[in-house]
Design a protein that fits this description.
This protein is mainly beta. Strand 5 and strand 6 form a beta hairpin. About 14% of the residues have low confidence. The chain has one domain. The radius of gyration is 21 Å and the shape is globular. Strands 1, 4, 7, 9, 12, 13, 15, 16, 18 and 19 form a ten-stranded mixed sheet that branches. A five-stranded antiparallel sheet has the order 6-5-14-3-17, with helices on one face. It has a two-stranded antiparallel sheet with strand order 2-8. It comes from Musa balbisiana. It holds the Pfam family Neprosin.
Length: 337
């Protein structure tokens, strides 16, 4: 299967590809997968042993979605997750795109992780929330989950990219920057295919018939400009069947607060956003997919972080990068004990 429709770029928006060396995956050094197969990251014994239980392995923890409009201090402290994000809401969204530079932040504890991703959300911040999340993650492959192909649902079609496999090369502090582009979009139900059949042109029905695309409603993901990875079937969702109500871009860490101290697990590059290009982590060319299937710049972008002294976010806009954010931080420091 392939998506029937791709989002179209608006005429006045050209994405910047300057200073963007190509990124690959480490397993490509050992070969590629043949057609009609997909690469699958092997689950090893050590991966299972690091999980809290076999039942929990590969399943995502609840209450880890950033809640910029419904912040309750007790709930935030209970979740143990901290974020630095940009977000849009108040409209119908049919996808999102961004380019993210890739780092290997410090991870303090084996039950912690640091990720950078986009969130596509529908529903309310509770048990009835639907989310699609895509990006890069640094961890001990333990605290994550229904991630990649570990649970039924996501249908992979690409034989080039292995979900959960290592990305190479990585950005250097003060040196070369390497980034990845991610696009998630919905094949909208209003888009139809023209179907010509004998029955449609019979004397009893002398007109062309229109048939709904059998792929309609699915959420597709593309990595870079060349790799359509696969899709989430529409039947998986209750609140994302038509559109999303919020899009988020940014970072997330788990703060286990060992011995009452904030974790030193880094977000992004592990440096604060004010350090800028080459030192801080970024999302650039941030876009949303609108109801006309066009990629366009978002309006009224907000930002959110629970503790700006630990992890922070700053947004901006220019001709080269469009809408962008710098985000991240080191975690524990003199201002974040």
């Amino acid at each position: 299967m392939r998506p029937a429709f791709y989002p179209e770029r608006t005429a006045n928006k050209v994405e910047s590809h300057k200073n963007s060396p190509s990124i690959t995956q480490l397993w490509h050094r050992n070969g590629r997968c043949p057609e009609n197969t997909i690469p699958v990251r092997r689950t090893k014994r050590d991966d299972l042993l690091r999980a809290s239980s076999v039942k929990r392995y590969g399943r995502k923890k609840h209450k880890s979605i950033p809640m910029p409009l419904t912040v309750d201090s007790d709930l935030l402290n209970e979740s143990g997750h901290q974020h630095a994000i940009a977000y849009v809401e108040g409209d119908r969204y049919y996808g999102a795109k961004a380019t993210i530079n890739v780092w290997r932040p410090k991870i303090q504890q084996t039950n912690e992780f640091s990720l950078s991703q986009l969130w596509i959300l529908g529903g309310s911040f509770g048990e009835d929330l639907n989310s699609i999340e895509a990006g890069w993650q640094s961890d001990a492959y333990q605290a994550t989950g229904c991630y990649n192909l570990l649970c039924a649902g996501f249908i992979q079609i690409s034989n080039e990219i292995a979900m959960g496999a290592s990305i190479f090369p990585l950005s250097d502090y003060g040196g070369s920057q390497y980034d990845i582009s991610i696009l998630v979009w919905k094949v909208q139900t209003k888009l139809m295919h023209l179907m010509i059949s004998a029955a449609c042109f019979s004397p009893f029905s002398p007109h062309a018939c229109y048939k709904q695309d059998p792929q309609e409603g699915h959420w597709w993901i593309q990595f870079g400009n060349d790799y359509v990875l696969g899709y989430w079937p529409s039947f998986l969702f209750s609140y994302l069947t038509e559109s999303a109500s919020m899009i988020q871009w940014g970072g997330e860490v788990v703060n286990s607060e060992l011995e009452g101290e904030h974790t030193s697990t880094g977000m992004g590059s592990g440096h604060f956003p004010e350090e800028g290009f080459g030192k801080a982590s970024y999302f650039r060319n941030i876009q949303i997919v609108d109801g006309s299937n066009n990629l366009r710049a978002p309006k009224e972008v907000g930002t959110f972080t629970e503790q700006s002294s630990c992890y922070d976010v700053q947004n901006g806009n220019n001709d080269d990068w469009g809408h962008y954010i710098y985000y991240g931080g080191p975690g524990r420091n003199t201002g974040c004990p």
